[in-house]
Amino acid sequence: MTFLKSVFNNYRTVGAISPSSRFLYKKMISPMDLTHDIHIVEFWAGDGTFTDALLQKITQGSRISIFEIDPSFIKKLQSKYKNENRIVVYPLGAEESIRFFDKGSIDYILSSLPFGLMKTLVVFKILESAKHILKENGKYIQFQYFLQNKKEIHHIFPKVRYKFTFLNLPPAFIYICKK
Q1: Interstrand relation of 87-90 and 63-67 (parallel, antiparallel or unpaired)
Q2: Domain residue ranges of the chain, discontinuous segments joined by +
Q3: Half-sphere exposure of 27 (CA within 13 A, CB side)
Q4: CA distances (Å), 126 to each of 4, 35, 46, 132, in order?
Q5: Does the model's pTM come out above 0.70?
Q6: CATH homologous superfamily of 2-178
Q7: Spatial distance between the Cα atoms of 174 and 48, rounded to a whole number of angstroms
Q8: For 90-111, b where at least 16 C-beta lie within 10 A, e where not — what string?
Q9: How far is CA 57 from the centre of its chain?
Q10: Backbone φ/ψ region at 160: left (φ over 0), alpha (ψ -120 to 50), beta
């Protein structure tokens, strides 16, 4: 119910019509090496669909830092993960991530941000912050329903691969960007 309520109340920040599918999740995490301790930053975790799945796969020494701005999702995530010491929820926008992590300290960034609904300057600020905090071989993984932000993403991350899944509502493109 939280997801639908947020869609109707805050469509410009939610940017989706349904929660992500397990097929999208599998394609999003497939470029990640989850066999050792890592630090993942998640931009826009929503109701925690990807986070829940990640918790099943990551090591006990791994960490997930979530940046979320939707008040109902923040409340749900903080309650849901209050006893999970591998997760920290930051009730801030993704562009603020640069304030909390050293340059080159993050292994992966998993993003569900609705870039197509955001101003170009904000998109660039988020992408630049992401590149700054990623390790040298770190990966920024973003999904979108259309390739409308391809130019901005390639400007910041020149090494980009693509995946696609029909098995999501709506179908989605996945950008796998290497620093």
Answers
A1: parallel
A2: 2-178
A3: 22
A4: 26, 28, 17, 10
A5: yes
A6: Vaccinia Virus protein VP39 (3.40.50.150)
A7: 18
A8: bbebbbebbeebeeeebbbbbb
A9: 16
A10: beta
Q: What is the pLDDT along the chain (179 residues), one digit of tens a residue?
A: 553 444 444 444 444 456 788 899 999 999 999 999 999 999 999 999 999 999 999 999 999 999 999 999 999 999 999 999 999 999 999 999 999 999 999 999 999 999 999 999 999 999 999 999 999 999 999 999 999 999 999 999 999 999 999 999 999 999 999 99
Residue 81: helix, strand or coil by DSSP? coil
Backbone angles phi, psi at 103, to 5 degrees: -60, 130
Q: Is 75 helix (H, G, I), strand (E, B) or coil?
A: helix
For 78, the token pair is 């903080």
Q: Is residue 113 within 8 Å of 93, Cβ to Cβ?
A: no
SS3 107: strand
Amino acid letter for position 94:
A
C-alpha 143 chain-centroid distance: 8
Query: Each residue of 101-124: pLDDT tens digit?
Result: 999 999 999 999 999 999 999 999
